[in-house]
Write a structure and sequence with these properties.
This protein has 71 residues and is mostly helical. 79% of the residues lie in helices and 0% in strands.
């Protein structure tokens, strides 16, 4: 039973990323590339909650870390 839970959760996570991809990119763009907003300010513009912005930011940082093969 738990074997099927993991693929399901992965699928749901992937759907969530695709579903909010534009918002995620806008958030990252405003905070890191344009440097025009704080994370909180960008969250208000997107608009998403501060908690969601922190989650998306942490996921972005982990992806960059993985891509650059950082310890």
């Amino acid at each position: 039973s738990s074997y099927f839970l993991t693929p399901y959760l992965l699928q749901q996570s992937a759907i969530e990323v695709v579903k909010h991809g534009h918002q995620r990119m806008e958030l990252i763009d405003r905070v890191y590339w344009k440097r025009s907003h704080t994370l909180y300010g960008a969250a208000m513009c997107v608009p998403v909650s501060e908690r969601t912005a922190h989650t998306w930011n942490a996921e972005f940082i982990r992806l960059v870390e993985k891509y650059l093969d950082l310890p």
